Amino acid sequence: METQTKTVILTRYNEYIDWIRYIIDQVNFIYIYNKGPNNNFFNHFVMTEEQSKKVIIQTLPNIGRIDHTLAYHIMEYWDNLPDVLINLPGSILMCKKKGYYLSAIMRRVENTKTKYNGFYSPRFHRISSKFNYNIDNYQAEGLCNRNDNLFIKSEYTDFQAWKLAIIDNIPMKYVAMRGMFAVCKENIKFIKKEIYENLIQSLSVGDNIENGHFAERIWAHLFRQKVNDQQINVPQSDTPQIAEVS
Q: Does any domain span residue 176?
């Protein structure tokens, strides 16, 4: 089997991320995007010299959480993407199920392109084309990741209005949750750059935002488009349904 380059995109706020020791020897690089108030990444883990060469640390503003990080990285490294990109939150050890999801991703990462049509997520579901969503409030799962930032509602009435405005008008077939998945370069680059730029802009309004919950639910739709052999077009003239802001 041809060797594939594999890169992890890890978004960290205030968690210890010692758990990367379980995957660092299986990938080529780990990009740690720090959106938190400190650099206390590790509690016990000490990298070897060879492992440290694989880790790139960058500080980003605390906006848009994991979804902003992914869109940012894709645009920043558009011409140098790996064969497989693995998207992960820093909060893996705050939920037992996330540990299971990480294990599932790493077991299947070599077959992402051949067996899983270029996109694998352990929380991947087929949905109705009428799928919709909104949320009125949210707190981070881990206590260490909570702050005083108020929840910001979207300027759009719901997920479908947001999707129509900045993504496309193609009916959805799939959704993936938790922001944990592996995706091949070909699936990423099948989507026009403008959509990633739209995502970055939509996710730059704050930290605790409804648009972030919308973005979490769009990745499977985007990264399975190549399977359908249908190029996504950025919406130009559609009039979005915008919620009234009091």
A: yes
b/e map 46-65, b = 16+ CB within 10 Å: eeeeeeeebbeeeeeebbbb
Report the C-alpha gap between 168 and 170 in whole angstroms.
Answer: 6
- Cα separation of 138 and 161, whole Å? 20
Residue span of the structural domain in which 93 resides? 6-228
Run of H or E residues at 57: strand 55-59
Asked if residue 234 belongs to a domain, the reply is no
Residue 241 belongs to some domain of the structure: no
What pLDDT, in 10s, does the model give residues 83-119? 999 999 999 887 778 899 999 999 999 999 999 999 9
pLDDT digit string, tens, across residues 183-216: 999 999 999 999 999 999 999 999 889 999 999 9
Q: How far apart (Å, rounded) are the C-alpha atoms in residues 151 and 162? A: 17
205 burial via Cβ count (<10 Å: 0-12, 13-18, 19+): middle
Domain membership flag for residue 101: yes
What is the number of domains present in the chain?
A: 1
Q: How many CB atoms lie within 10 A of CB 242?
A: 13
Rounded Cα–Cα distance for residues 117 and 225 (Å): 10
